[in-house]
Amino acid sequence: MATNPNVVIIGGGLAGLAGAIHLSQKGLKVTLIEKSGYSRHKVCGEYISNEILPYLQWLGADVLQLQPAKINNFEFTTRSGKITKSELPLGGIGVSRYALDNFLYQKAIANGCNILKETVIDVTLADNTFTVAISNQVLHAKIVFGAYGKRSNIDQVFSRGFITKKSTWLAVKAHYSGSFNADIVALYNFKGGYCGISKVENNVINICYLADYASFKKYKNIDDYHHNVLYKDKHLK
User: Per-residue pLDDT tens for 86-101?
Assistant: First the structure.
């Protein structure tokens, strides 16, 4: 089966969903292809600057409906444990990707976007028209919006240089309950990485950190790494 939307968007993360909503509001017929379903958790700091709120509201996606944490202060620690604090000139909000992605997904559906849970097999261009193949159909469009992020299947097909280089960083994220000021986004440094902490909706604490892979693999599991590395920072502990 062949279909012919005005625009095909490959990837249904924040960029893909925002693009789908924006283009559909301009009257274009949009098909978005995303291999995963909604809702889902993503490794992400889950802090959004207030400067983006007018655009989201213009899209008709007022994220304040999700009752995010309102954040106006920043906290920073060094590896030695020294701490500094500052007000954020613009401020921001804390909202989970689990809630935000689903919120935008529902808005895109309401706007008439066709969203397919599929994996793109191939993309070709001939005579100024893209052909996008998925498992059970072929789509033809003048415009294809690639919102699939880095290190995707298409990067492998194009043999892009970075795809052969292993990342030196490992990202870990989890949600916690506990005591943390909802008005603060914090960045704590530890040996081999750094950790962001802030609250999201429902009084949940999001903790997301980047660790140097070479130091991380010295330990058997995440708990061991926490006890032997992150806990050296008294604030993280």
Answer: 999 999 999 999 999 9
